Fold this protein.
Amino acid sequence: MTNPMPTDHSSAPVLEALAAYHEAGDVPFTPPGHKQTRGADRRVLEVLGPAVFRGDVLATSGLDDRLSRNRVLERAEHLMADAVRAEHTFFSTCGSSLSVKAAMLSVAGPHEKLLVGRDAHKSVVSGLILSGIRPVWIDPRWDTERGLAHAPGPEAYEAALEQHPDAMGALITSPTPYGTCADLDGVVASCHRRGLPVIVDEAWGAHLPFHPDLPSWAMDAGADVCVTSVHKMGGGLEQGSVFHLQGDHVDPERLSSRADLLGTTSPNVLLYAGMDGWRRQMVEQGHRLLGAALELAEQVRTELAAVPGLHVHGRADFTGPDKADDLDPLPVFVDLAQLGISGYQAADWLRSEHSIDVHLGDHRRVGAQLTYADDAGTAGVLVSALTELASRAPEFDPPREVHVPTGDRLRMEQAMLPRDAYFGAVEDVPAHAAAGRIAAEMVTPYPPGIPAALPGERLTEDVLAYLRSGVDAGMNLPDATDPSLGTVRVVAE
Ligand SMILES: Cc1ncc(COP(=O)(O)O)c(C=O)c1O
């Protein structure tokens, strides 16, 4: 007998199947080779604990039977879809980095056009490289005064759709890593008028469906596919990601098949369990937990705003005409320009002096991510450390200046298809001599992970000077062939 699709959100099918597996005392002659802690080294167990190994079972012929007849994963995905008002949900154990590629491949194929906001994450660019999709870049809304970008507005997508009637669909990132949200309704309306699907990279928005005071989220805005990292603003384990689907612009079988192309055949059940349990927690307690988190964020913002030298970015800075449409207040960004120190210096100091890790440090600010898991204790640690930072800032060495170009000078010509530039003949040239050459690699300040240069773009002196000065100031460029940017990999001439 097959289990019917459940609607009871007190149930957590993956966790229940795992408990039943342990109860039955299955003896695995299958991977994983540690065989339920028996083979785990004592010193590893001392750090990880036995629960990690006990929960690490094979998905089929382990958590479920050989033919997945108990539909454990399917039931958990169904409950997740029901919880967030989607029609289908797919769990992924390779982060939104995989989910977003599966979504892109379900909408466009090699040489077909996809409209993509140029503030897309590097995983989207990897998707372009692997697939051979031709990006039609949409310029973000650039805030010159603050030196950061918000997602493009609907008018930019509308104009691009007019110009590229052969585009297969659109991809937009919202929220951005800075917590700013796009006018998704407008973008969806433009695309749907032409029968085209919209993918929303909502990696930072796992919590949005669970509280009405948070910005509206992609499924409610009518988007077709939405990708979410449950491990970022949600409580899943690292790499736990979902993609949701609704409507009839994207076929569920096609999306599932594209994900199958990219995914592992050995998914980590711990990640499934983390997502399944988090869905239950949010359905049952999300409103209360997120309500408390919103109050805490408000309090943290008020306390930090009262510290001389700190400027807390809020709605007035980030939303309004030509800026973002809405703001998630849980990521708290503090501008340090008045203190005369960089976000790189502040992030290093907070870790070395206070064992505090902030999510994002850039040339002039730090961003601390609050979630439903924070409380007065953790918030107090953050506020007191940033208060001390403000008083100690005069002791810091003056930061190296980062030459951040204006938005129009950050944009470079896409001279070749990303795939062709990446896979063709390449050479490494000194960065000071690379202007005018076509990049053959991504060069990405991380975090937030938005490539400043990507394969096929013709490099300009403005962007190279920005990156070189950034590295000198403490910027992290982990994906560049030479992270110190002495050289850049370009298309061979
Ligand atoms: C906007 C955006 N999309 C996608 C990703 C990839 O997500 P994951 O780390 O879950 O692979 C990230 C990661 O930071 C991101 O910021």
Notes: Residues 95-97, 100, 121, 123, 173, 177, 201, 203, 229, 241, 449 surround pyridoxal-5'-phosphate (CB under 6 Å).
